[in-house]
Amino acid sequence: MMGPADWGDVPTWIGGGGALAAGWFAFQTIRSQRQQIGEQQAFIAEQTQFMDDQRRNLELERAELRAQAEERRISQARQVLMTFETAGESGRDRYQNGTGYSRWDVRVANGSTDPVHDVMVRFGDAYNAASAREWEGRRHPDRGRRPIPVTLIPAGHSVTFESPNWSESTVDNHRPTVLFTDSAGVRWRLDSYGKLEEAPADGTS
Predict the structure, then answer these.
(1) Burial (CB count within 10 angstroms: exposed 0-12, middle 13-18, buried 19+), residue 51
(2) Residue of 125, 119, 90 whose CA lies nearest to 106
(3) Domain range holding 50?
């Protein structure tokens, strides 16, 4: 005949319950820590994305500011215009080679609202303008004569520069380029093909 089942004594039951409670507490602690770590990782990822977005926005803003500053820097120079044509006496045997002589007449117009300074027209690689005049009313050889380089062309004014004389066959080898300094002190170079670029302060280009 079988006796009653042995369920152990009270201390054993208490010990087992404590172990179970400790295990459950440890499990809950680990789960809570994992949840906190996950939340922290999500927060860090959000902050990283936010900082990346802020950095990209800042870079775009800086690029826009640089573009605006460059546009302001070059805006006056773009309003300085150069037009030119050849003039001379065809058939006059000045060079004793059966051809006439020719020169460039170059008009530099300041269409900006500020003056430009130290204006010089260069022809080819080595020749400077022979004369400069600001025409007023009728053309006259001595009216409006200006020293070279022209110290200042006011807003809305223009000056005509004349090149040295060359033979008709070689005049096109000495195409004009104008050099000038804007109101901010930047030196510019504008060639006969419309290319505008910053020049060295001494104008040697």
Answers:
(1) exposed
(2) 119
(3) 12-78
Tokens of 33: 């820590």
Separation between Cα atoms, residue 75 and residue 105, nearest integer Å: 26
Contact 169, 157 (CB under 8 A): no
Q: What is the pTM of this model?
A: 0.62
Q: Regarding beta strands 166-167 and 101-110, do their DSSP bridges make them parallel or antiparallel, or are they unpaired?
A: antiparallel
Task: Answer yes or no: is pLDDT of 80 > 70.
Answer: yes
On whether both 172 and 132 belong to a single domain, the answer is yes
- The C-alpha angle 96, 99, 101, rounded to 5 degrees, equals 95
Omega before 149 within 30 of 0, i.e. cis: yes
Position 65: which residue type? Answer: L
CA 94 to mean position of chain CA atoms: 48
**pLDDT digits 0-9 by tens, 118-166:** 999 999 988 999 999 986 544 545 556 888 899 999 999 999 999 999 8
Residue 19 lies in a domain: yes
User: What is d(CA 190, CA 153) in angstroms, rounded to the nearest whole number?
Assistant: 16
- Would you say residue 178 lies in a domain? yes
* Terminal Cα-to-Cα distance of the chain (whole angstroms): 122
- Cβ atoms of 176 and 163 within 8 Å: the answer is yes
CA–CA separation, 95 vs 87, rounded Å?
A: 16
Token digits of residue 113: 């609202």
Within a domain: residue 59?
Answer: yes
Number of separate domains in the chain: 2
Would residue 205 count as lying in a domain? no
